[in-house]
Structures are given as structure tokens and as C-alpha cells.
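User: Just a sanity check before I run the rest of the batch. Below are the C-alpha cells for the first item. I only need the designed sequence back.
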């Protein structure tokens, strides 16, 4: 199984951007004011600023 695209919401957008692009050195392929997308192999992962007060997922792995 291949996950080609996934969209996740976060309350820590800047911290995740720093982690994925600087710590893991994954390429950012798109950036907007409220979101960014990185590539990990064949997968594209988009993180966007959470719009609800619900606590979004903190961690995921695949």
C-alpha cells in the first residue's frame, strides 16, 4: 500500500514546519499562509492550521 497524499491539522504549524524541513530535511513542495506540504518518498503530507478547538493528532507514523 502506498499513501500518496494525507492532510493533517495542527495547532503547532511552525514547529512542525521546522521539524520536517530542517531536522528531517524533507523538501517542502508548497507553502501557504496557513499550510505547507512536504514530500516523503512518494507521499505528500500537508499540514494546515487547525480551525477548531478540538485537539488534533499529535503524532502519526507510516
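Assistant: Here's the designed sequence for the first item:
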Amino acid at each position: 500500500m502506498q499513501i500518496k497524499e494525507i492532510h493533517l491539522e495542527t495547532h503547532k504549524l511552525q514547529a512542525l514546519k521546522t521539524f520536517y524541513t530542517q531536522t528531517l530535511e524533507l523538501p517542502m513542495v508548497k507553502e501557504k499562509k496557513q499550510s505547507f506540504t512536504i514530500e516523503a518518498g512518494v507521499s505528500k503530507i500537508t499540514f494546515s492550521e487547525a480551525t477548531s478547538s478540538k485537539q488534533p493528532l499529535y503524532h502519526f507514523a507510516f
